[in-house]
Amino acid sequence: MQFHPHSTSGKHASGTRQRRSGRLAGAAAAVAAVLGLATLTGPGAHAADNPYERGPAPTTSSIEAPRGPYAVSQTTVSSLSVTGFGGGTIHYPTSTSDGTFGAVAISPGYTAYESSIAWLGPRLASQGFVVFTIDTLTTLDQPDSRGRQLLAALDHLTRRSPVRSRVDAGRLGVMGHSMGGGGSLEAAKSRPALQAAIPLTPWNLDKTWPEVTTPTLILGADGDTIAPVASHAEPFYAGLSSSLDRAYLELNSATHFTPNSSNTTIAKYSISWLKRFIDNDTRYEQFLCPLPRPSLTIEEYRGNCPHTS
Ligand code: 9J3
Ligand code: ZN
Fold first, then answer.
1. 240 forms bridges with which residues in the sheet?
2. Please, which pLDDT band fits residue 37 given cuts at 50, 70 and 90?
3. What letter does residue 40 receive in the DSSP assignment?
4. Higher-confidence residue: 63 or 7?
């Protein structure tokens, strides 16, 4: 399959699609531009100040839904064809008419395979991201190695993969489960250019993350006995800089393995975090601020309302 290169700055960069001539038509277009009229963009689109905004305005039901507005395709990356990580699957919006997308790489945990985090691929990609769910070099790799492998996967995605022209290499994030979540903190620590990190029931021997400047959402599980929140997720959150955009969401009635199957709470807050910080999409701030209240699914939520920049 062949992919066509396109603008990195989104649908609005393509300008008028209608071929008109004459001074009056030009004046009309200028007036339309000044008034922000949406006549030159497609259904569901609107004039946006933010070139990274993708998809229609979100609602609670749209971020809770099993799939978002984008149809998704996938392509397998063989471990034999890459270096520095174990291959995986790239999930991407099929459409090429919305410009490039931000991207996120996701690592599984100790002894686990890509299949353990695979549900996040189409779930997040259908909201407008390129998502690389990976295998690690060995299932026994430790968090620091998983961090390097997440970065190798992102580099492969943006430089060599068949979807590289669909990805905005300046808008990348990392996620991971357990030691993969610990790895996502390692990746953010070593590559500050990352725009978002979401460790899922993370595990790491390092408890302090003052070096991280990437907006980070940490998800813990109240019933986790493998990476108990008291010795992992909570100190990781507390160890992030208080000036950082950061949040801690503790899942209610959940275990270490809750992130290994479809979960609406994980999805809706991950989507909101990725949209807000990879796409700069303030339409999603309504789900992060004011801070979510404890509920049937949220045991506890700590954090700040996103800083405006
Ligand atoms: O990736 C994980 O599930 C880490 C939890 C674990 O088994 O740590 C013990 C060494
Ligand atoms: Zn540290």
1. 209
2. very low
3. T
4. 63
More confidently predicted of 27 and 201: 201
CA separation, residue 80 to residues 7, 8, 77, 87, 135 (Å): 31, 30, 8, 8, 12
Mark the residues whose beta carbon lies below 5 A from ion ligand 2.
206, 208
User: 193-223: buried (b, 16+ CB within 10 Å) or exposed (e) per residue?
Assistant: ebbbbbbbbbbbeeeebeebbbbbbbbbbbe
Please report which helix (H) or strand (E) contains residue 287, including its range.
Answer: none
Residue 1 has what pLDDT? 28
Identify which ligand lies nearest to the alpha carbon of 231: 1
Q: Which of 256, 270, 279, 281 is catalytic?
A: 256
d(CA 150, CA 177): 12
Closest of 54, 132, 131 to residue 99, by C-alpha: 54
Nearest C-alpha neighbor of 294 from the set 236, 249, 247: 249
Place of tokens 């979401």: 198
Tokens of 57: 């305005």
Rounded distance between C-alpha atoms, residue 238 and residue 224, angstroms: 18
Element (H, E) at 120: helix 120-125
pLDDT in tens, 126-154: 999 999 999 999 999 999 999 999 999 99
Alpha carbon of 228 to ligand 2 centroid (Å)? 18
Q: For 87-99, write each residue's pLDDT tens digit.
A: 999 999 999 999 9
pLDDT at 46: 55
CA separation for the pair 133, 265 (Å, rounded) = 19
Ligand 1 atom 10 nearest Cα: 110
| Ligand located closest to 212 CA | 2
> If phi over 0 gives left and psi between -120 and 50 gives alpha, with beta otherwise, what is residue 58?
beta
pLDDT reported for residue 32: 44
Bigger pLDDT: 31 or 224? 224
Backbone angles phi, psi at 145, to 5 degrees: -65, -40
Q: Are strands 101-107 and 216-221 parallel, antiparallel or unpaired?
A: unpaired
